[in-house]
Specification:
- Two copies of one chain form a homodimer.
- Chain A is mainly β.
- Chain A contains two helices and nine strands, in the order H-H-E-E-E-E-E-E-E-E-E.
- The termini of chain A are close together.
- The interface between A and B is medium-sized, with 29 and 29 residues.
């Protein structure tokens, strides 16, 4: 059901997917089984050993939990750019905490949201994160579609603030 | 005028640009002053030392001339993925020539189109090129909007088949 809902959000955003892509939309609940609050829906366009491009759907107020992409040895961590296509997405990163943030953390696990410098992204706006930056993001009340342009995606290396989250159980298969 | 026309094509494709981005749409005529035939319109979203993402407009039958992205020393050439968003784009690469290709080269300079293996891309379809691959592409009769996901874009290193094309004169400023 989440997959169909995400497919509808992509269609509404004018983003054309092949039927194979629609059927393969990844529904990530990070193993927490609270998808409406914590999760995201993903189409991976390309992920080579050099470059990755994805399209993300966030349902209204759905949150991608706080994490970072570490550099490991000589290998630099993932660099990523988020570009808002529809809706509004609030990106939180390290830095001066925003006085009255637009988002609250999910009811369960809220202590695992520790960075509060807010960057509001509306359609056509984007932000680039350098490796190792702690970040999380949440859609506004209408949800959001977000493009992600990055170096290679190696999810298994991501470090989440919430100790309950292990990538191995990330995929919520419906 | 080409810039406004490209902005309209992006809008029709549902791609939201900021006003700064609209005003900075790059109109590339490759120094040939035959923009309707040879050229493309470009918005660069991001181009860091690792990753690049662009959005391209091709007017009806407009052609990006044949070129390749060479590896230089230890630095691997540009790897790029083209994803069609609207319209149709015909991508030509090295390999078995297609018997009845959908495109003809421009009237002037046609001898500089030497690879004829055709890949037809419709909305939602994409193709990834490894470095050093000779390629060119042309939109169908309705034009096309194409997303490009790649490693760093270093246009000054591109090698064009047409000896008249030098990157220094690529930008057609209106």
């Amino acid at each position: 059901m989440a997959r169909e809902r995400a497919a509808a959000a992509f269609a509404e955003a004018g983003i054309v997917l092949t039927s194979d892509e629609r059927n393969a939309i990844e529904v990530a609940d990070f193993g927490l089984s609270q998808l409406d609050e914590i999760g995201l829906e993903i189409v991976v366009y390309v992920n080579t050993e050099r470059v990755c491009a994805k399209e993300l759907v966030l349902f209204p107020r759905q949150t991608c939990p706080e994490h970072r992409h570490p550099s490991v040895g000589d290998s630099r961590g993932k660099e990523e750019t988020f570009r808002c296509r529809t809706g509004v997405v609030y990106l939180y990163v390290e830095g001066e905490p925003t006085a009255n943030p637009a988002c609250r953390p999910p009811a369960s696990g809220g202590e695992a949201f520790t960075v509060w410098h807010e960057i509001e992204l509306r359609p056509g706006e984007q932000h680039t994160l350098v490796p190792d930056t702690l970040h999380w993001f949440q859609a506004g009340d209408e949800g959001a579609v977000v493009s992600e342009f990055s170096t290679t995606s190696t999810d298994e290396l991501d470090i989440f603030t919430d100790p309950r989250i292990g990538r191995a159980t990330m995929i919520h298969d419906e």
